[in-house]
Amino acid sequence: MSYDATKLADWQISEEAEKKMPTPEQWRDKLGLQKDEMLPMGRLSKVDFLKVINRLKDRPDGKYIEVTAITPTPLGEGKSTTSCGLMEGLGKRGVNVGGALRQPSGGPTMNVKGTAAGGGNSLLIPMTEFSLGLTGDINDIMNAHNLAMVALTARMQHERNYNDEQLARLTKMKRLDIDPTRVEMGWIMDFCAQSLRNIIIGIGGRQDGFMMQSKFGIAVGSECMAILSVANDLADLKKRLNNITVAFDKSGNPVTTGDLEVGNAMTAFMRNTINPTLMCTAEYNPCFVHAGPFANIAVGQSSIIADRVGLKLFDYHVTESGFAADIGFEKFWNVKCRFSGLKPHVSVLTATVRALKMHGGGPKVVAGKALPDEYTKENIALVEKGCANMVHMINVIRKSGINPVVCVNRFYTDTDAEVAVVKKAAEAAGARCAESQHWLKGGDGALELADAVIDACNEKNDFKYLYPLEMKLRDRVALIAKEVYGAEGVSWLPDAEAKAKMLEDDPKYADFATMMVKTHLSLTHDPTLKGVPKGWILPIRDVLIYSGAKFLCPCAGTISLMPGTSSNPAFRRVDVDVNTGKVSGLF
């Protein structure tokens, strides 16, 4: 059944749907899992992915469906909602369907954007667990990451306090000679805390640590999270966690977690994160939740492991990429698929009339403030002009060899005439287009979308990467800037270009993925530029090295790894009933 999403909050819909949510034992029977393949954790369960993969290794993979979007407003355009709605719609068509989504960060959940559970009648349940830590993966990642910083700062203190002979005798360590001005890592927490972006640590005496400038980032931006999203198994996770570059020594050589002898202990903290958590939509379609990397800087996808399991268990497997197609799809296409060896059957491009109006010149959209009237009343001219952004994203996806399905994620304030404009523009660009009202009606509102996706999955595609691995870093960046973002060229700051040349000349970085760092609010590096800007140059100011994840991250514009909390954050409306323990106010 569906609920009145215009009157009930998301947490209320989740609460009602949870009354009939399958138990772990029922899920085991429904999915055909063996008893030892389910790892119960309260109302939820993790799935022992390796046992499932090994048992089903000869079963053909299902259809692989990726969900992305046009350039969003600061409110987001409903990729998670569309992913859940598509699962529900396919379920209504009687197919064996499931999916994989990312775990939400406590930062947005307690800020203005809210959780990433979807919404209305197309959301993940149980919503409270999903939004407040789930089965502990982010907490384990925080412990692992911060343990690396404990190891680094303690080592720097002891190397300052002892000479070489004392180090060897008292601590059984050799001197690493870490350069305090070249510490790459900072600390992490899972909230938006702008006051921790730049800090001084080690204030006090010689026994109070090493005094230096440091920083905090948000937990999902940790390289440990990025590693979880691309790891193949526990052995691969352990290897990668030992290869993280924490700092450089005074000769310019990398100092890794392995050098600090902390990578194995980090793996111990993260040993349980390797298995996906099983949840479901409000209509009880199974969905794995695993990893949640920052899409601005990392791959921005749920894990390769979750997709591998889903493709064995489901005939249709839905996975979502973070942010718009210029970021999320590009990384899915050229990084995640290359790392996993998996090839998608179709990409669903989520579009909203609201965002298209913004790209057509509508008033500024500000999270936490009411939408101007232009976004809730019919305005054909704004929609028509804004469709250029959607067409650009259609063309980006088609460069991968995939013919996308455009999903018009319809709000109840959108008019038939506005939706018709979007459909006409999408079809003129050569894409299938379907209207979907999954937020309002659940699976019944997503049948047109489900049918379009089934048709597209049965159509042969010619999936191919944008560039070969042999291509040099700067050439890759230039190609992505031109073919994906629409830039005329790339300008490198001198220090960034020197770093790029050094990385290109070092063979150990030859097979590293190119993981662009750019705002999600524009095709350009400037979040204020909407639509499809012309005649601009992409500036690259730095290249970050994620040596455990094997990412090189060219940075365009200014991206902060620690977002800020707004003046009207969501936590003000979250509450707990002291008699029942039920949480209210989540959205």
Describe the protein.
With 587 residues, the protein is an alpha/beta fold. It folds into three domains: 10-134 and 275-457, Rossmann fold; 137-267, Domain 2, N(10)-formyltetrahydrofolate synthetase; 473-556, Roll (Formyltetrahydrofolate synthetase, domain 3), CATH 3.10.410. 35% of the residues lie in helices and 18% in strands. The protein contains 20 helices and 25 strands. The strands form six sheets. Strands 1, 2, 3, 4, 5, 6, 14, 15, 16, 17, 18 and 19 form a twelve-stranded mixed beta sheet that branches. The chain has a four-stranded mixed beta sheet with strand order 20-22-23-21. Strands 7-12-13 form a three-stranded antiparallel beta sheet, with helices on one face. A hairpin with a 2-residue loop joins strand 5 and strand 6 (122-125). Helix 4 (79-92) packs across helix 18 (447-457) and helix 15 (380-398) runs parallel beside helix 16 (416-428). The longest helix has 25 residues, at 137-161.
List its salient traits.
twelve-stranded mixed β-sheet, 3 domains, four-stranded mixed β-sheet, alpha/beta, 587 residues, Rossmann fold, Domain 2, N(10)-formyltetrahydrofolate synthetase, 35% helix, Formyltetrahydrofolate synthetase, domain 3
